[in-house]
Fold:
Amino acid sequence: MDIFIQQVVSGLATGGIYASLALALVMIYQATDVVNFAQGELAMFATYICWSLINAGMPYWGAFLSTLAIAFVGGIVIERVVIRPVENAPILSIVIVTLGLLVICNSVAGWIWTYVQKPFPSPFPAKPFKIDNIVFGAHDLGQIEVTLLVLLCIYLFFRFTPLGLAMRAAAHNPVSSRLVGIRVGWMLALGWGLAAVFGAVAGMMVAPVLTLEPNLMGGVQIYAFAAATLGGFTSPGGAVLGGFIVGVVENLVGTYVSFIGTELKFTVALAMILVVLLVKPTGLFGSTVVKRV
Amino acid sequence: MSASRLPRIVGLLALLTGACTLPFVLSNFRLFQFSQVYVYAIAILGLNMLTGYNGQFSLGHGAFYAVGAYVSAIMMDRWNVPYGWTIPVAGVLCLVIGFLFGLPALRLEGLYLALATFSLALAVPQILKYFEHWTGGSQGIVLSKPNAPWGLPLSPDQWLYVFTLAVLVVLFALARNLLMGRTGRAIVAIRDNAIAAQAMGVNTALYKSLTFGVSAAYTGVAGGLSAIVIAFVAPDAFNVFLSITFLTGIVIGGLASISGALFGALFIQFVPNWAQDISKAAPWAIYGVFLIGFMYVMPFGIAGAVRLALARLGRRGTAARA
Structure:
């Protein structure tokens, strides 16, 4: 039982990371109908920026916040410069452009920072908590807290600010939003900026566990895909819940199903994606989009 | 009609003659590279049938390439099957797997199919390593290059060049016949408007799964050939970047174009080699820049640009004569 609870908690911790990245994917998908295949790599890049700042002597939380700011601006710039020209192109073109971004980020990171694994600091104490006989990693708990805090902020932002409302409107009905004076193009760019921020949080939280390297986010991204698919690409809340579910399932399967272990981690995610897509393609909380022909 | 076809036939024959003389002028290493180009061209043609002609995404064709490569390698290494026989087996097996994968893919449209296949591409190396007993784990399987048969005075590299060229010519001819006829029209119609195609009596479900199967078969054959040409297979060669490489090939060569497969293959074989001199990471940065750049300025790739240039020249010619 103790092991079970420990695994569930550490599953929730990794689930928080998947939830952040899944939220980033869903935000962009809702606004522009694009799945950003480069989301994980952008997060990895932001994490490297944070690493450089810390190495330059900045305190952890200072570097953390600066990275979020840089990621936000970077996300906006990428939307304006790279995505905007293909905004109305067929889906294939957009997917190819995001894949191009993926390989560029990956190789440029390898170029600048080499492919050597780098240790990444955790802001939380190394000493684990102990309640009865159950041991919790401090980083796990801190990770859950940070994720929940970010989610709370984003919920408040979208629910209670005029800008949040404008962004939701732009995603929901671009034409009408334009008629009431919302600058839809800029709302989409802001969405990309916010998505880059969530990605950066996920990257900086997962880097202490996995150690920093250019292929850091490959595994996280496939699980974030699984999370977003499970929760539904049209539902931000669903994607978050999906993230936590996927994290817990991954951990429990890895612990209790002996032939899978950690060696087939990606295959578990692939299986989850396929099962959800075949059984309920819209995900648990997604809505079917009806199109006129 | 026949007048306009004549220059094309002459051009094709000239190209083929040129390809046949290469073994006698180039070094063994260059020949090895060109064999690789032909292998890639087959894989890219396979992917292009699915993505370019039929409009179904696959970001995971590296998986079928891997299946083909491992089928060939295991048959040669474990069962001592002659290499020539492993190719059709790889093709047929991938045809079946592709067809079966195509059935659930019917329910997935656009982005969802891209997602599923992308995850497949990510998972492939792990799966290959897991079945260590068959695949040799991360060590892979080492093979030996076959010698030329019938006592032909050719080095192994020369013979493999001829062998891959022969397979390429056969498969390209088959693809042309498939895509230019009734079946090809149905495949393209599904891409352009699935509902209209269905209304015209095209069995979209059957055609989509079949295209998936044939496309996988082409890629599987290419994978099998690659195992023979390189004489080595290892799981990490079949990572997600291999699938993106194929996609790069069809984008650069030209979506929905048969000759584009060759341009794309030349690009993915030679450009990374040149870029490697700048930095180990440079090839992928260049792939990325080309992927995005081509989407902006040449959405139909090199083949599309050539077609456009030829059409312009032709128009100028007729205008001058008139």
User: Anything to note?
Assistant: Residues 16-130+137-217 of chain A form one domain. Chain A has a mean pLDDT of 84. Residues 12 and 244 of chain A are 5 Å apart (CA to CA). The interface with chain B takes residues 29, 33-35, 37, 82, 85-86, 89, 91-93, 95-97, 99-104, 106-108, 110-111, 218-219, 222, 225-226, 229, 263-267, 269-270, 273-274, 277-278, 281, 293 of chain A (CB under 8 Å).
